[in-house]
Amino acid sequence: MNSERSTRISKFLSLVLRHQPETAHVQLDKAGWVEVQALLAGCAKARRPISKSDLEHVVETNAKKRFEFSADGRNIRASQGHSVAVELDYTPQEPPEMLYHGTATRFLDSIHAHGLRRMQRHHVHLSAETQVTLQVGARHGKPVLLTIQAGAMHRAGHVFYRSTNGVWLVERVPAEFILFPASPAG
Questions:
Q1: By the 8 A CB rule, do 86 and 121 touch?
Q2: Best CATH choice for the domain 99-179 from the list 2.70.50.50, 3.40.640.10, 3.20.170.30, 3.40.50.10190
Q3: d(Cα 55, Cα 40) in Å, to the nearest integer?
Q4: d(CA 129, CA 135)
Q5: Is 8 in a helix, a strand, or coil?
Q6: How far is the CA of 56 from the CAs of 18, 19, 80, 177, in angstroms?
Q7: Exposed e or buried b per residue across 139-160, where buried means at least 16 C-beta atoms within 10 angstroms of its C-beta
């Protein structure tokens, strides 16, 4: 499968498994799972046919590991990033001292004032690495990398989860736990 088709499938799966399952005529269970066969049938019905081998390829090769199969391979779900109600049942974990969040510079005033909020998603997404994090920020404008004092947040009572694809999840990040980059001299 070429990368363009893989990207199109991945984006459609993100829409269906994270935000609008009705687009592919499926319903997610309370943990976000849907039967693979029902998903494939629903995608075909929505005129976005995906073969099982294409689905397996996208799940296996997606750089961000956005999707996962159940242990028996019969079900699939998004690892995180849902705007629909799901309970992913991740266990609270102690985060590393520092995590990172990529955003666009145009959001910095709001983040200074309110911290990071989950908006329409279930959690704020944080990462232990910086490269992909900056790419995420670049999707919305000129990127900036924020350093989150996750260890201090955890000790202050904030609960962290780690998704199966390694993304750290937290309800919110108050501004006092964010290390903002220095403003350029000007």
A1: no
A2: 3.20.170.30
A3: 9
A4: 11
A5: helix
A6: 18, 21, 18, 39
A7: eeeebbbbebbbbebbeeebeb
What CATH number does the domain located at 3-78 have? 1.10.10.970
C-beta contacts of 176-180 below 8 A and 24+ residues apart: 176/115, 177/115, 177/148, 177/149, 177/150, 177/152, 177/153, 178/101, 178/111, 178/115, 178/116, 178/146, 178/147, 178/148, 178/149, 179/146, 179/147, 179/148, 179/149, 180/108, 180/111, 180/112, 180/146
Q: How many CB atoms lie within 10 A of CB 23?
A: 14
pLDDT in tens, the chain (186 residues): 888 999 999 999 999 999 999 999 999 999 999 999 999 999 999 999 999 999 999 999 987 788 999 999 999 999 888 888 888 788 999 999 999 999 999 999 999 999 999 876 778 989 998 776 666 767 778 889 999 999 999 999 999 999 888 889 999 999 999 999 876 543
What are the extents of the domains in the chain? 3-78, 99-179
